[in-house]
Amino acid sequence: MTGGSEEDPFTKPIGRWSVFFYGVGHMLNDITASCWFTYLLLFLTQIGLSPRDAAIVMLSGQVADGFATIFTGELIDRFGHFKIWHAAGSLLVAISFSSVFGGCLPCSILHNDSLTLETFSYSMFAAIFNIGWAATQVSHMAMVNCISLNSTSRVALASCRNAFTMVANLGLYAIALVVFGVIKAGSKEDTETQYRWIAYSSISIGCCFVIIFLMGTKEPRLRLDVKETSRVRVPWVYWFRKLLYYQVAMVYLLTRLVLNVSQAYLAFFVIDDLQMDQSAKALVPAIIYICSFVVSVLLQEIPWNGRRLKAYYTAGGVIWIFCGAAILLLPRNISFFMYAISVFIGIANALMMVTAISMQSVLIGAEVGGCAFVCGSLSFLDKMSCGLALYVLQSHQSTSPRTQLNNHQQSAYLSVTRYGLGLVPAFCSFVGVTVTFFMELGADGSLSKPLLDPLLE
User: Fold this and answer.
1) What is the rounded distance in angstroms from the CA atom of residue 438 to the CA atom of residue 200?
2) Cβ distance 412 to 170 under 8 Å?
3) Angle at 350 between CA 336 and CA 385, to 5 degrees
4) How far apart are CA 274 and CA 330, in angstroms?
5) pTM for the complete prediction?
6) From CA 164, how far away is CA 108, in angstroms rounded?
7) What is the four-CA torsion angle of 78, 246, 137, 370, rounded to 10 degrees?
8) What is the Cα 339 distance to its own chain's centre?
9) Are 8 and 150 in contact (CB under 8 A)?
10) Residue range 58-78, pLDDT digits in tens
C-alpha cells in the first residue's frame, strides 16, 4: 500500500480531459506548419521567386527554428515555466505568420520590387515565425514528460497531440478550399491576398485552441517538484553518453523527414506529375490526415511497452516503404490509385510519428530535469535536416515542371517531385526501421499501466 501511494504523484494514470486539454495545445503550430510545408514553396514560386530562392526562404526558417530549439530547451530546463514559453511562442507565431504569406513589406516601404529584396524579406519573416514556433514546440513536447511518469499516459498524450495535428491539417485544407474558391488568382496581388486570408484564418483558429490549452492545462506539478527533490537539471553530457539518445535522435530525425518532405511535394506530385484534377490537391492530403487521425485516436487505447513501440514503428516504416515504391512506379494513366496509396500513407504517418515521439519519453524516463534539452536537440536535428533536404531537392526542381513533363516525358517520370514524395521517405523509413531494430527500450509490463479513464467510449 505504501508503494502505491508513493507513486501516485508521478505515475498515477491521467484522465481523458487532461489528455484533451494538452492535445489541443499545439494546434496553432500545427495549422501554420501545415501551411508552411504544403504551400510555402508553391506560393513563393507563384509570385515570381525562383525555386532556389524559394528554397532559401524555407531554409532560413528551418535554420532559425533549429537553433531556437536548442536555446529554448536549455532555458526551459534551467527556469521551467512551460506555459509562459508556450504562450510567448504562440504570440510570436500569431504576429509574424501573416507576413510570411503576405506581401513584401520592405518592398512597399522602399518602393523596390527587386527579387533579392523579396527573398530577404520573406526569409526574415520566416526566421521570426520559426523562432516563435520553436518556443511553442519545445515547451509543449517537453511538458509530456513532466505531466506524468506513466508511460502509457505519455503515449496517450502524444497520440492526442498527433490526432489534433491531423485536425489542424484538415482544417487548413478546408480553409484553403474556401479561399481558393472565393478569390481567384489572376495576378500576383490576388495570389498574395489568397494566402494572406489563409494565414489570417489559420491564426484565428489556432489561437482559440491555444486559449483552451492555457486555461485547461496546469503548469506540470512534476516539473515544480524537480526543484525540491534530487531530480536536478541533467547536464548535456549525460545524454551524449547514452547510446539510446543517438538511436532515438536518428529515428525522430528520419520520421520528421518522412512526414515533412512528403508533405512538401504532395501537391506538386498530384498536379504536375500525375496531372490529376485540381481538387486532388486538397482531397489526397485530406485522406491522409483523416486516416492518421483515426489511427492516432486508436493508439491511445493500447497499453504500451518498449517492444510494442518498436513493433508499431516498424509496421509504419514498412508500410511507407511499399508506398514509396508505389509512388515511384505509378504511371499517369492509373493516377486514381493515388487515393488508395494515400490511405496507407496516413496509417504509416500516424504509426511512425506517435511511436517516435513516445521513444523520447522512454529515453527521458524520470530524468525530467533534462527533458527540454532532449526535445530541443532532437528538434534541432529535425529542422536542419528537413531544411537542407528540401533545399537540395528544390534547387534541382524545374521552374516550369509542366513544360518539362510535356517535352521530356521520360525524364519527368522520375522527377525531383517523384523522388521527394517516393524515394526519400521510403529510404528514411528503411533506415529508421533498421535503427529501431537495435534499440533496447525495455519490454516489461511496468510500462503498460492503463489510463485512468478510457479515451474512447
Assistant:
1) 45
2) no
3) 95
4) 9
5) 0.72
6) 37
7) -20
8) 22
9) no
10) 888 888 888 888 888 778 777
